[in-house]
Design a protein that fits this description.
Radius of gyration: 21 Å
Mean pLDDT: 84
Strand order of the largest sheet: 6-5-4-3-7-8-9
Number of strands: 9
Order of helices and strands: HEEHHEHEHEEHEHEHEH
Structural class: alpha/beta
Number of helices: 9
Length: 285
């Protein structure tokens, strides 16, 4: 789930179907009512407090963090080719963005991809629903929040995380592309983190497609205007983003760019193998 989900839960305490939220999950433990903690694991980890209590507590948190990576990697290892779909938790089923999210997911499944979301309501629910109804694998990566709304009912494979950074690692590790629909701070965070990882070559490049010109055009104009003019990004960085309105076009771009990147990787592997063979022959001569 994104930060949007926490805000939506705080305001409503209900899921997209109007039912009471499913409770607060802390790993395998379910908490409700007065048992719901006032702070999250991320808050406790990053808290700036006096004293030396962290010396005793943080080493144990490292073990918990390690277990999240182990459990996440184990659960997702056999997912196969997958694309993450991001967007607002506040989107209602009768809004056009919900339908678009579902259509994007259906197209991705038909193209041979599993669909990964944050597992919550709104556009995440729409994408999980579209994937499941199309007969594909519907994956949700949830997060511990004070107003936990639980996995939406369209998730086939769900993993709950305490820590945002562990969850984000799994999004990036198991996705071959990102499709981003209108959303708030949480969606912006996921978008810019993926852009930063690609820009800095911390990950193998993957396609990033924004869906909804009327929503995203202002951001693109800002990037092409003052941000580029100030020299804080390069013109080439803008090529990392595709902007579309049509769900089918979003799927086509993901598939096309994915195929191009795989071809580039295969060519690089072949080139390296040839270079190694030539170096071996040269050393034997």
């Amino acid at each position: 789930m994104t930060a949007d989900e926490g805000n939506a839960g705080a305001q409503q305490g209900r899921n997209a179907e109007g039912e009471q939220h499913h409770g607060y999950r802390r790993g395998p433990v379910l908490l409700r009512g007065g048992q719901v903690p006032r702070t999250t694991s991320d808050q406790n980890l990053l808290a700036r407090g006096g004293g030396a209590d962290w010396v005793h507590a943080d080493p144990w948190r490292v073990m918990r963090i390690q277990s999240e990576f182990v459990e996440g990697f184990g659960a997702l290892a056999e997912v196969g080719p997958a694309v993450s779909v991001f967007g607002s938790a506040r989107t209602k089923p009768d809004q056009p963005e919900y339908r678009i999210g579902s259509e994007v997911a259906r197209g991705l499944v038909e193209a041979g991809y599993a669909v990964i979301t944050g597992g919550g309501p709104g556009i995440m629910e729409a994408a999980n629903r579209g994937a499941k109804e199309a007969g594909g694998l519907s994956v949700g990566l949830g997060i511990e929040l004070p107003f936990e709304q639980g996995m939406n009912r369209w998730v086939d494979l769900g993993v709950n995380f305490r820590y945002f950074f562990a969850r984000k690692t799994c999004f990036v590790k198991y996705s071959q592309g990102f499709v981003v629909l209108p959303g708030g701070f949480g969606t912006f965070d996921e978008l810019f983190e993926s852009l930063t990882l690609v820009q800095t070559h911390k990950v193998t490049e993957f396609p990033i497609v924004l869906v909804g010109r009327s929503y995203w055009q202002g951001l693109i104009d800002w990037l092409r205007g003052p941000v580029l003019d100030q020299g804080t990004i390069s013109a080439r960085d803008l090529d990392l983003i595709e902007l579309v309105d049509d769900p089918a076009e979003a799927v086509r771009l993901v598939c096309q760019r994915g195929a191009e990147l795989r071809a580039e990787e295969e060519a690089a592997v072949t080139e390296n193998a040839v270079a190694e063979q030539e170096a071996e022959r040269a050393s034997e001569a």
